[in-house]
Amino acid sequence: MVYRWDAHKEVGFCSERVETLFRAVYNTSNEIAAKAAAVQKRNVIGHIAELVSSLSTAVSCEQLNGHADVTVMPLACSGRNW
After folding, report:
1. Mapped to the 3 state alphabet, what secondary structure does the chain carry?
2. pTM for this prediction
């Protein structure tokens, strides 16, 4: 799950795989936000980060409840023992 979108450098990552996944989502989201900002004349990264966080939480909940056949790992670990 994405707990600390902007503070990922301070929070750290649980593994190299988690860091790779986070950076892919983070960089792609920032690229999309930059293109949207050029068209909309406003910053939308907060909205994108919120959507990524909501999606990550929803998928995790589905997995925990046994309703999804997916493997989910937390993106940024804020001192939690994953």
Report:
1. CCCCCCCHHHHCCCCHHHHHHHHHHHHHHHHHHHHHHHHHCCCCHHHHHHHHHHHHHHHHHHHHCCCCCCCCCCCCCCCCCC
2. 0.65
Cβ proximity of 10 and 78 under 8 Å: no
CA-angle at 7, arms to 3 and 19, nearest 5°: 75
Q: How many residues does the chain have?
A: 82
Residue 64 is part of which domain span? 1-82
Q: CA 47, CA 24: separation in Å to the nearest integer?
A: 17
**For the chain, what is the domain count?**
1
- Give the pLDDT of residue 29: 92
